[in-house]
Specification:
The chain is mostly helical and 216 residues long. Helix content is 60%, strand content 0%. The longest helix is centred in the middle third of the chain and has 25 residues. The protein is globular. The protein starts with 17 loop residues before the first helix and ends in an 11-residue tail after the last helix.
Length: 216
Amino acid sequence: MRPTALGSLLIPAVAANQDAASSPPRIDAAGPDRELVRRARGGDRWAEEALYRRHARAVARTVSRLLARSAEAEDVVQDAFIFALTHLDDLRDPDLFGRWVLQVAVRLVHRRFRQRSFLRLLGLDRGADDVTLAAQADPRAGPEIHARIAEIDRALTRLPARCRVAWVLRYVEGSGIDEVAAASSCSRATAKRLIARAERELRACVALDEREDSDE
């Protein structure tokens, strides 16, 4: 299986207030985030809601695939937007609100992974992975594909969190290297190293096809 094709075999993951994310009110779909951010900074609650509704679905999909747990993903998405909307003055480029809130969410994902590791050491991790990649696989894919994706799921759980996040962003979400670096709050070179390490460790556990990758 080519890693670059993995994202196309998954159905959209849904988390964090599906109804709110799927039925936006009077939002100008073509309008820039900059104007909404400007209004939200001035206390416009409608603009805050519009920013949430515009970006919540994409952030929820990414976070659920990173964490593989719907309840944790919903909490992370809510916390990420609360932080972002109460710290809008920290946003340097208002046109990049979506990228910024995803960066906040990924930072919270790493915190969740650290908490999970601590609870596992104590034997107290009771969470269940209910939104694994295998669970999101297109039902029309054959059993061999489903089995291969399940192998990838198991291998991902053994990766260091930073490598896992970078690899999923790159090959499941289809993010470019620059987007992975921005979401992971690291340099482009570091993002490439994290992805490469994840690739090596995954290949030791799962038969992935050779791929042609670009730096885009």
